[in-house]
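Morning!

This is the sequence you dropped in the shared folder:
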Amino acid sequence: MRPSELAPTLALLVEARQPAILWGAPGCAKSALAQQVAADASRAYVDVRALLLDPVDLRGIPWRDGDGRTRWAPPAFLPPADDSGRWLINLEELPSAVPMVQAALYQLVLDRKVGEYELPEGASLIACGNRESDRGVVHRMPTPLASRFVHLEILVDADDWLAWGAANGIAPEVLFFVSMRPELLHCFDAQSKEKAFCCPRTWEMVSTIVTRRAGLDAGVERALFRGTVGEAAAVEFSAFLRVWRELPHPKAVLDDPGNAAVPENASALIALCGSLYRMADDVTLDAIVTYARRLRREVGEFLVGSCIRRDPDLQRSPAFICQVQFKTDPGIAFNFDPP
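The structure's back. Tokens below.
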């Protein structure tokens, strides 16, 4: 399932207190999705790294009460049993935990308790992990534990990631590159010997490098890209960036969209569109739409669509409404001034 489909599905299971496990390749935003679900539901998010636990850690530390009987002090990473809040406990990297730890979780996952400790009413359990085919540190999940979960697999989707990236500050250079080369968003090959590969997590890292480069030498920058998304993607992205950075200021296009030059080089044109999309608002969208009509149809639609994806409220602007009508009947003349 795509992240946009998984989010409401997981939210439903969390509210029903039905344990679920998210499976997926490395770097495909499993943990980010869990955190988003917790935030949307106003739940405190607890990250429990299952692979760091020993079987006895879940039970806690023994102590003797006033009657001389042994009690167990539950671990601090679990919410207090009498807590009235709302919690989402994520058993991160559960398949990487050794079999004895996985077995120790049977009671917690199914019965919501470990020995004398019980999860509070407002707590829900989920888990995340890589698949056996991903060649990570993974132990086969025991059948009794697997049967306690609803199993969901996350699929990387470029449109989903681009929408997320536009709302979460991913560099426009990265967004436009991935828009044109969506197949490079996720290129994980379990058989490859290359350590770096393309995935949503590593493209977010590339965005950080681009944003904070501050005069970084071009050769060093390419080396960083290569160490982040791999050789092939780094070569393409570096070439794209060279064109992007040589473009004139897009303000000239906004000042005179009907006469501004249209780059002949495809990479340069896409880079310019990236700059324009970054500047889209209620005031500038009129000029952007005017310029978009002078471009090849697929590029113009790509530019306007990117503006709307970045700010959905622009769909109500007169410029966008006219553009939709223009696509239906290009022979219509429009006045973009609001009535």
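Headline: The chain has 15 helices and nine strands.

More detail when I'm at my desk.
O.
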